From TrEMBL:
PROSITE patterns registered for this protein in UniProt: NAD_G3PDH (PS00957)
The EC number(s) this enzyme carries: 1.1.1.94
Residue intervals of the Glycerol-3-phosphate dehydrogenase NAD-dependent N-terminal domain: 5-152
UniProt function note: Catalyzes the reduction of the glycolytic intermediate dihydroxyacetone phosphate (DHAP) to sn-glycerol 3-phosphate (G3P), the key precursor for phospholipid synthesis.
Organism name: Novosphingobium tardum
The name this protein goes by in its record: Glycerol-3-phosphate dehydrogenase [NAD(P)+]
Gene it is expressed from: gpsA
């Protein structure tokens, strides 16, 4: 008999989500791309590559067989955003299943949001987006948080998914705004890089708060142009995750930005990591999509310049501060 739920991707977040779902002995199948992780999870109850130091629930069963994971009626897709399309293409037919999208990003080249990638790759599946302020290590140790669970299938789908996802320390809130939930998570990663730069340059806490507010204005403008609802962007998957990711070195995106502010190059920082910093991939894609929609995103443009090594961080900040004065609201 297949498990009630599968998690595809055994990085930090997929592993933490498996831990949430596996409470009360529920069997969870966790697909790992790395063969050595299958043994480590099944035999040692550990994920030493991506979530070290956490003992995993006994009802999590790792597999290297994607087809086996895909037999579950509910499948959480937790690969990095740039690998979602290829992962879906490798799945057998998942028509009629619930696919819960957990990656935060926009696809390079095609400029597709994750929902579009999944709709194109798995046309008959019922899509949902799970997103919010969720550092994997905190979630895996049972510290409390809340997330947006946006359901394309409305309340009927929510009734299927919410009891699976909800736990004593993991509280989903219902939404039907798929695009809004996706955009918050994708954009906040780029803004977190910018916040890290501000702190790497030691520009002070006022500057960080100002950047979060002006960054949120960019998220809102872009989101509205893409068809998102303002209240979703002001919720857990938007502002909630932005505040989290912009305030802690536990964020891979923020810590990348901090290193940039301290004078390191993006290439050097990323080459030394095995974990993903989605904002580095999303920034140029987001800038292109915003330009195509006619939406001004100066902070995002500044991050693109910094990632490319186009100018020193102090110069980029000076350029942002010297822009023409304008009304706080508006484009
Ligand atoms: N770590 C966190 O706290 C959170 C992460 N997320 C999102 O979850 C997604 C996955 O991130 P993490 O689990 O943190 O990853 P990670 O940085 O912990 O691990 C990297 C992941 O990338 C996978 N990978 C590498 N090359 C691949 C390929 N060619 N095809 C498929 N998979 C490949 C690895 O197998 C591994 O699962 C990202 O979009 C991230 O933004 C969302 C919420 C929280
Ligand atoms: O999305 C996250 C928290 O909600 C994780 O943020 P980072 O990818 O920046 O570590």
């Amino acid at each position: 008999m297949s498990a009630a739920v599968a998690v595809v991707g055994a990085g930090a977040w997929g592993t933490a989500l498996a831990q949430v779902l596996a409470r009360d002995g529920r069997e969870v199948v966790l697909w790992a791309r790395e063969a050595e992780l299958v043994g480590a999870i099944n035999d040692d109850r550990r994920n030493p590559l991506f979530l070290p130091g956490i003992e995993l629930a006994p009802s999590i069963r790792a597999t290297g067989d994607l087809a086996e994971a895909a037999t579950a009626p509910v499948i959480l897709l937790v690969t990095p955003a740039q690998h979602l399309s290829a992962t879906i293409a490798a799945l057998p037919d998942v028509a009629g299943r619930d696919l819960v999208l957990c990656a935060k990003g926009i696809e390079a080249g095609t400029l597709r949001l994750m929902g579009e990638v999944a709709r194109d790759g798995a046309p008959g599946a019922a899509l949902a987006v799970l997103s919010g302020p969720t550092f994997a290590a905190e979630v895996a140790t049972g510290l409390p948080t809340a997330v947006t669970l946006a359901c394309s299938g409305g309340e009927k789908q929510w009734d299927r998914l919410a009891p699976l996802v909800a736990g004593p320390a993991f509280r989903p809130y219902y939404s039907d705004d798929i695009v809004g939930a996706e955009i918050g998570g994708a954009v906040k990663n780029v803004l977190a890089i910018a916040c890290g730069v501000v702190d790497g340059l030691q520009l002070g806490q006022n500057a960080r708060a100002a950047l979060i507010s002006r960054g949120f204005a960019e998220m809102l403008r872009f989101g509205l142009a893409m068809g998102a609802r303002a209240e979703t962007l002001a919720g857990l998957s938007g502002l909630g995750d932005l505040v989290l990711t912009c305030s802690s070195v536990a964020s891979r995106n923020y810590s990348l930005g901090k290193a940039l502010g301290e004078g390191q190059s993006a290439d050097a920082v990323l080459a030394a990591r095995n974990s993903v910093a989605e904002g580095a991939h999303t920034a140029p894609v987001l800038a292109s999509l915003a330009a195509a929609k006619g939406v001004a995103m100066p902070i995002v443009a500044a991050v693109v310049t910094l990632l490319d090594g186009g100018a020193p961080a102090r110069e980029v900040v000076a350029w942002l501060l010297a822009r023409p004065l304008r009304a706080e609201q508006g484009g």
